[in-house]
Amino acid sequence: MTGTFYVIGVGPGDPELLTLKAARLLEKCPVWFVPKAHQNGDSTALTILAGSVATEGKEILELHFPMKKVRMHQAVDPEVEAAWQKAAEAILAKLNAGIDVAFPTLGDPAIYSTGFYVCDTLLKIAPRLPVSIVPGVSSIGASAAAVNQPLCLGDDRMVVVPATFENGQLRETIAQFDTVVLMKVHRVMPKVVGLLAELDLLDKAVLVERSSRSDQRVRRDLAAAAKDELHYFSTVIVRK
Ligand SMILES: C[S@@+](CC[C@H](N)C(=O)[O-])C[C@H]1O[C@@H](n2cnc3c(N)ncnc32)[C@H](O)[C@@H]1O
Question: Distance, CA 38 to ligand 1 centroid (Å)?
Answer without folding.
Answer: 16
